[in-house]
Design brief:
By secondary structure, this protein is mainly alpha-helical. The chain is 66% helix and 0% strand. It starts with a helix and ends with a helix.
Length: 179
């Protein structure tokens, strides 16, 4: 069984930049939510969330759930999130919970009050776009092809497209000077 879990976590790393358990645990900490509450916002059953976290399952098969995850990560990582009133935080989470947009239909350039665009977090938006068009291994392959002539671009692809979100945030801050 452990081989299946390891395989699934490796696939999650390839598809999502890090194991989903790491992403979900970070959200649980940031939101102070239980797994049942987080599952409710994402539109998953609690058992499915648990299976994704443990590596029993590898993939988020519903594009709307993936989009809600990206929106939730972007919202919870915004400066000042922890200073919002509990009512305002819940209102924003309710907007995400009700969002029907998907990574296939979301227009990252347009923001609507009902569904905050992922672009409110530039790192999440960049990762979302790159991961919508290519897998982590494809992004790594493209970076390998570019590395000799365009090393900075290759590094950006690796870190932003195939790397862990926390590493992508640090890289983005270094490059843009935004902390």
């Amino acid at each position: 069984m452990t081989d299946l879990y390891d395989r699934n976590r490796k696939l999650q790393y390839e598809w999502y930049g890090e194991p989903l358990g790491d992403r979900f645990r970070r959200l649980l900490d940031e939101l102070g939510y239980t797994q049942v509450q987080l599952a409710g916002v994402l539109g998953l059953s609690a058992p499915m969330l648990s299976q994704l976290m443990s590596g029993q399952r590898a993939k988020i098969s519903n594009p709307a759930v993936l989009t809600r995850l990206l929106e939730l990560e972007a919202t919870a990582s915004q400066p000042g999130w922890s200073n919002l009133s509990p009512a305002e935080r819940e209102r924003r989470l309710e907007e995400i919970r009700g969002s029907q947009r998907t990574t296939l239909t979301v227009d990252h350039a347009v923001q609507t009050p009902a569904a905050p665009a992922v672009s409110s977090d530039p790192v999440a938006a960049i990762q979302s776009v790159l991961r919508d068009v290519a897998s982590a291994s494809e992004i790594e392959g493209a970076a390998d092809l570019l590395a000799d002539q365009y090393p900075d671009l290759a590094e950006a692809l690796r870190v932003l497209g195939a790397g862990r979100t926390q590493d992508a945030r640090a890289y983005y801050a270094k490059i843009t000077g935004h902390h």
